[in-house]
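User: Show me a protein chain along with its predicted structure.
Assistant: Here is one chain, sequence first, then C-alpha cells.
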Amino acid sequence: MTEQTGVLGSEAPQGDSKSYRYRISLRAWHPSLDPDQITASFGINPKRYWRAGEARQTPKGTPLVGVNKMTYWTAEIDSGSWPDRTLRDAVKDVLDKVHRQKSFFRQVRLEGGSVELFIGWFFEGQSGDVLSHDVLALAGDLQIDLSFDVYPSAQSQDG
C-alpha cells in the first residue's frame, strides 16, 4: 500500500515524473490609466502595453478594427524550472517582491481594473505542484488574481 497525501488521497508526483518549466508575467488592465503610470508604479519596463481609447493593432503594428476598451500592461518578471525551484516558491517570491505595490493594486481594482500573475506552466510528462494556502492568502491580500495557461508536452496523455 502506498502512502496517501492530500485531502483527496492523491499521490504526490515522484522522481522524474515531476518535470516542468514556468514563466510568470505581471498583467494589469484599467479603464483609463496611462500605461506609463503603471510602468512608473511597478518600476518594470513592459513587454507590451496599450492605452484605452487608442486604435487597436497587432503586436507588429498592423491596424485592427476598433479601439482598446481598456489600458493593458504586461511584463515577464520570473521564469525557471523544477527541480531548481518549485512553482510555489517562484509565485511566493514574486508576490513578496510586488507586495510594496499593494495600495496601487487596490486602487486599480477600485477603479474597475484588475491585476494578475499570468503563469505559463510547461509540463514534460506527468507533473504538478501545490500552491499552498499561505501563497493563495498573500495573492488574495494583494488582490492579485492567478491565471494559468498549462502547456503539456506533445506526448499523448493516456488515462
